[in-house]
Amino acid sequence: MLQHLHIENYALIDSLDLEFRPGFNLLTGETGSGKSIVVDALELLLGEKVPALAGIIRSGADRARITGVFSPPALRSLGVGGSASPSSRNESTRWTRLLATLAESGIETPEGPAGEDLVVQRDILPGGRSRVFINNQPATVGLAKTIAPCLAEVHGQNEQQELFSPSAQLQTLDRFGGLGAPAAQVRERFERWKELRAKQEDLTRRRQERLRQMDLWQFQKREIEEAAITPGQGSKEDARDGAREDARLEDARLEAEKLRLAHAARIEARLSACYDLLYDSANSAVAALSSAKKNLDDVSPYDAALPPLAEALLSAKVSIEDAALSVRDHLSRLDASPGRLEEVENRLALLDRLKRKYGPTLDDVLRYFEEVSGHLRAAESDEEATRTIEREVAEAASAFETVARELSRRRARAAKELKRAVESELQELAMQGTVFEARLTVSSTPPSSGAWRGSGIDEVEFQISPNPGEPLRPLARIASGGELSRIMLALETVTDARQSSGSADHTLVFDEVDSGIGGRAAETVGRKLRALGQRRQVLCVTHLPQIASFAHHHFRVEKVEQNGRTVTRAEYLEGRERVTELARMLSGSLVTDAVLKHATQLLKSNQ
To answer: Does domain 1-156+482-520+534-573 have CATH number 3.40.50.300?
Structure first.
């Protein structure tokens, strides 16, 4: 609800403060007094483009300023007379959407069950420039325009209106038809389908990337696999001691073997000489130890200290024999063939090539092998994942289409009912013969075409033929501001009548709603505006006393001279002052007792 509107240095207004209230608020005044200036200022506050007109900024001022204070539905009563309706205590859908939009844009709002008052300010600067502040935080005109439908909706003067947009018209149809719950279900099913489609597209993209790499990965895996790289093993002593395996890989072992093979002849000669010295020659160490022990054995019976020495010589002999046998075994296993050296060198060349491609070490080569194997396993699992996601997408699409088709059928019925209801209202609003149509277009295209939306498979366009014989035209192409305002009033009336009490949460502003009507039609307009005011805040500019007599709250706007300059003032009217204003509207400048009596009776009848 718009609680307070401050206008400063705008056109004829030097400083004007209006305290609006719940219900039907009315602005009246002489022609040219500035009533429409108030509406124009409100439109600028809600993000409309600054008109390229001289005099927008009051002469002598460097800027114009418009400030609006809006309260959330949970903090005020939409009912008139002080009683809050049950639904008005609940958090508003529009207000919740507004707070979410502000949060996404980085605008902080007070925390609480429904937040606190929202202050929107716009400064109009020379050259058509402007600055916007929301809750004293810099914002953009675009953001103000985005949140405007959550705050107020202005009807009249042929300005661009929210209800001109197909999405808003579809929401109006759903509100009229009481289709909020099925529409929400459609939106939920759509989001689920959309989420799965995104996953499917991501999986397809990754699968295509993997498929492009498959041949390379298979070649690389096969190349490394065929090389049959093996890790090295620790020594037998290490194994007996429980030590961990040698971390060296095959290339380290082969390098050691290559070194051994390259010096095989020298190793063989030295090992042969060593074996001879230890065991095989007449003067070997074993022979010498045997002779020495024999000498000790010969004299051991005569000296008790000698047997231990003989045993030591025997132990030394056994150790040397073992060493000699080990030398002989190593000598017998020694491969000094040129073929083995060539084989080792070729193997090392293969491993070096793999290290250059996938290394720099064999550890890296083996890690790359595991990585490539993982890619290939993932590519194989992609097929199953693809089948799974295709099934899930198809199921989600079917679920969406089922509820969307049902919603479409219900919308078609609601569109026919809306046509009858609006045309009936327009008859009462002096638009006899007007034809209204809520034309539905149902999409039959597959979801891949992008025709599916969260709102369902329908598009709606409100069309009007104001005069018999004229073709139906889109609502946005209605030329008359007065006709447009009355059509909007009819739509709001029939839609609002089907809502739970207090469910409406944004301000409706009507300008030119009385254009081209009078008498009984004006009385009907006034009665309908008052009925709307029972549910939501309504602001209206009128010249007709029949409409004015129905208002809950009446403001008179007038031009006065102050310090040699013309300024616009607004006054809240009650009691005798309101009767006098109604009398002026009835008869002009000549207000007689009879006119005052008529005004009193009119006010009494319509309040």
So the answer is: yes
